[in-house]
Amino acid sequence: MNEYGHFPEQNQEKPGKEYKMEPLPLIKGEWYKGSGKLSGKIALVTGGDSGIGSAVSIFFAREGASVSIVYYNEHKDAQNTQRMIEEEGQKCLLIPGNVGDPEFCAEAVEKTLAEFGHVDILVNNAGYQNPHKNMENITDQDIETTFRTNIFSYFYMTRAALKHMREGAAIINTASVTAYEGHPTLLDYAATKGAIVAFTRSLSLSLIKQGIRVNGVAPGPIWTPLIISGFSPEKVKTFGQKSPMGRAGHPEEVAASYVFLASRDSSYMSGQMLHPNGGTIVNG
Predict the structure, then answer these.
(1) Cβ atoms of residues 254 and 29 within 8 Å
(2) How confident is the model at residue 222 (pLDDT cuts 50, 70, 90)?
(3) pLDDT for 166
(4) Among the four 24, 56, 95, 226, which has the fewest Cβ within 10 Å?
(5) CB neighbours of residue 3 within 10 Å
(6) For position 10, what pLDDT does the model report?
(7) What is the pTM of this model?
């Protein structure tokens, strides 16, 4: 099995620290060459400290965008991402806080405006999962935390940002292959991801006449801190091997999908989902 298909047993407390993972997720995409597709744009990315959000932020910067990164409390990971964005010659604002709080989401947008003057791209990406062997073990607090982080925050952040977004702006939501396949131990997580798909389609219809496009990405098994802080060490060891490609993906393999949806390359697309998932066919 290649480096993507086998991982050492490991586990961390939530929300997980990327810099402690073995191996480190591939986020920088050295192979990816920017071409100015997002020159002068301002992006706000939730969950941008690590994993998919980090790779997306770096790719956006390589295409000419400055980025506000919203994250919970993973300061070292966020600072690493900020450094890589600045190495691309772009500015990066770090905004720590809880996206499940509507007041914080409004503050994050205001801080972005104060720093950069406008918002052109919103990436709702922050996520939380907590596996349970059966339905009876899912507590009310589990449901509250998962829904507040994974879907309530998408409403909160979008509501706050929309006041300042104009024709040509783009909103990109992170769903999951679990929205289409389901998952036996991630009932609440999969339910929120299904909600994100419906949210994306409905918001697209709501905003399409304003010239604001809304799309989403539904990744498959991607090697991020969400995995080592959510699954047992035994599950981590074989993570991703059930995909048709026989391996997990890395964040840098997903990030270009977000660049496509944020740029004019996808000017005739709205209400759609992209599926970088290792070959799983979901027909959705």
Answers:
(1) no
(2) very high
(3) 97
(4) 24
(5) 11
(6) 86
(7) 0.95
CATH topology (fold) of 18-28+39-274: Rossmann fold (3.40.50)
Q: Which residue has the higher pLDDT, 17 or 231?
A: 17
CA distance 125 to 225: 14
> How buried is 240 (Cβ within 10 angstroms: 0-12 exposed, 13-18 middle, 19+ buried)?
buried
Q: How far is it, in rounded angstroms, from Cα 73 to Cα 55?
A: 18
| Omega prior to 23 cis, within 30 of 0 | yes
- Quick check: 2 pLDDT over 80? no
Beta-strand pair 213-217/170-174: parallel
Please give the average per-residue pLDDT across 93-102, as a whole number: 98
Burial 41-59 (b: 16+ CB within 10 A, else e): bbbbbbbbbbbbbbbbbbb
Number of continuous H segments (helices) and E segments (strands) in the chain: 10, 7
Q: For all residues of the chain together, what is the average pLDDT?
A: 94
Whether the CB-CB separation of 221 and 256 falls below 8 Å is answered with no
Enumerate the active-site residues.
189
CB neighbours of 134 closer than 8 A, spacing ≥ 6?
none
| One-letter amino acid for residue 102 of the chain | P
Tokens encoding 197: 């798909």
Whose structure tokens read 């699954």? Answer: 231
For the four alpha carbons of 63, 67, 72 and 75, in that order, the dihedral sign comes to positive
Tokens standing for residue 27? 């986020």
Rounded to whole angstroms, the Cα distance separating 237 from 108 reads 36
